[in-house]
Amino acid sequence: EMTAKRRTIAGIVGVSYATNRFSFVIAISTNTKRTDMALTFDEAKHEYYIDGIRLPSVTEIVGSEFPINLGPQSDGDREYILQRGRAVHAGCELFDSGTLDWSTVAPEIEPRIRAWEKFRREYSGQVILSEKPLSHPLFGYAGTPDRLISTQEGNLLIDIKSSIVPQVVVQLGGYAELLKTGFRRARRAIA
Fold this sequence. Notes:
Layout: E1 3-9, E2 12-18, E3 23-29, E4 38-42, E5 47-50, E6 53-55, H1 58-65, H2 75-97, H3 110-122, E7 126-130, E8 134-135, E9 142-143, E10 147-151, E11 154-161, H4 167-180, E12 184-188
Parallel strand pairs: 4-12
Antiparallel strand pairs: 1-2, 2-3, 3-11, 4-5, 5-6, 7-10, 8-9, 8-12, 10-11
């Protein structure tokens, strides 16, 4: 049985879904707007550039000030967690585009994508942005918000998480600022 809890802190709504085997958090900010500009994103290195100058990412900035302590982990554990997160994000994106083939979803990923499916039923709307690298024109940082969805309630800035960490509130604040002041969309670098 999947349970859902909602909590609002400083204008950010957190929706967590949980079973006895996993938890899944979606954080939402409703204070967003957009304009289009340019940016280069090197996907292989996960680095952002404007005119050859590397920009710090939201994740780097948040991590430097509010490190996440996941306890002792081997490089293999860390790589597994990163790959699992990428698979969840890819599955959620395929779900949003209507092209997800559930028979190809790994058992450890399926509950997380099912949670996204439930969330999307509760918060339907048009996906405006999905996994798009953006930069802040004034503060000189960049990031990749997971989703911006237009609903009857307004625009929802969403970050998909496979674990509950308090740093997501600060991370979403960085993404919300990218959208609030306008943003530069990335051109993908070819590596």
